[in-house]
Amino acid sequence: MSNIVELKKVALNLHTERKYDKEIEIFDSKSRIKVFLLHAILILTLIIFSVLNNPLYLIPLFIIVNGFFSIAYLRVFMHSEMHWGLSENKLVKFYLRWIVFGLYQVPFTAYVFGHRAHHRYDNDCPESNQLSSDKQSTYLYENSGKPINPVLWMLHYLFIYQFFHQIKYVITDGKKKDFIKLVLQIIVIICMDIAIFNINKIFFIYVFVPSILVSWLGSGIVLYMMHNIEHQKAKVHHSVNSYDNFFNKFGDNDGLHIVHSLFPFLHPIHAPEIDKLVYLELDEKQKLKEHYVIAFFKNVLNFKK
C-alpha cells in the first residue's frame, strides 16, 4: 500500500480510535519505568564508584553502561515525551523534562523546537548552492540527494544543530515563556553537572563526561542512519528502518522511522501495523536487520558483514 493518502486514513483511524487508550496507557507506563531505570542505573554507577573509592578498573565498564545505554536511551524517550507525552502527571512531567532528560545535556525545550523543525522540513534536499531548510537534514548541502559525509554530519548535528539551531528556533519561533523555560533548563543542567562534580570529581571527569560523549556519538550515528538513503532510490519515504528487536521493544519502536516520518502524530504502539503495509515496497537498503550503529560500521565504513 504505497498510496500515502490511504495510509494516512489508516493512521488517522488508529490515532483517533479510543479502544486503544488502555493499551497506550500501559505502553506509556512501561516507558516511564524504563526512564526511571535509566536514571537509577546512572545514579547507581555513581554510588558504586564512590563507595568503592573510585576503582579505575570500573571506568571502562561504567562508560559502556552509561554511554551505550542509560544516557544514550534518554534521547529515545525525550523523543517520545516530545511527541506523545509519557505521563499526564505534572510532577512526573517536570521530573522527565527538567531533571532526567537534562542529563543528556540538551535542554528539553530546545529539543522540542528543533525536532518540530526537522518534521516541518522533513529531511529535505537543498536547492543548488543552498543549505537544506531542515538544518538537521542528512542532505544538508548535497542537492544530488545523496547523504553527506557521516562524520561531517554528526559533528554538525551534535555541536551546531543541538546547541545553535535548536536554541535559535526557541528564540525566533517560541514565546517568552518558552525562552524562560530554556534558560531555566540550562541552569538546571549546569547545577546537576556541578552537583555530580562535587559528589565525585573523578567520576565526573572519567565516567560521566566520556559517557555523554559516547551517547552523543551513538545518537548521532542512529539519527544519520535513519536517513542514510539516496533520496531518489527511497521508496514510500526517504527514511530507513531498523528491525533490531531490543532497540524497538525497549525504545518505543524508534527503529520504525519510515512510519514515524510519514505520520509523526501516530503513537508508536501503532507503528508495526502501518509498517506491515509498506514493508514489501521498501528498498532493501531501507530495511536494516541490525541496530543502526551496527549497520553504520558494516555499511558506511565498509566493514565486512
Q: How helix-rich are the residues, as a percent range?
A: 55-70%
- N to C succession of SSEs: HHHHHHHHHEHHHEH
What does the overall shape look like?
globular
Oligomeric nature of the chains: single chain
Q: Let me know the number of strands.
A: 2
Low-confidence stretches: none
- Main beta-sheet strand count, sense and barrel state: 2 strands, parallel
How many structural domains in the coordinates? 1
Number of helices in the DSSP assignment: 13
Topology:
Blueprint (H helix, E strand, L loop, with lengths): L3 H13 L4 H31 L7 H12 L3 H10 L6 H11 L7 H14 L28 H24 L2 H24 L1 H25 L15 E2 L2 H6 L6 H6 L8 H8 L8 E2 L3 H9 L5
Parallel strand pairs: 1-2
Helix pairs in contact: 2-3, 3-9, 6-7, 7-9, 8-9, 9-13
Can you describe what's shown?
The chain has 305 residues and is mainly α. 63% of the residues lie in helices and 1% in strands. The chain has one domain (4-300). It contains 13 helices and two strands. A two-stranded parallel ribbon has the order 1-2. Helix 2 runs antiparallel to helix 3 (59-70), helix 3 packs across helix 9 and helix 9 crosses helix 13.
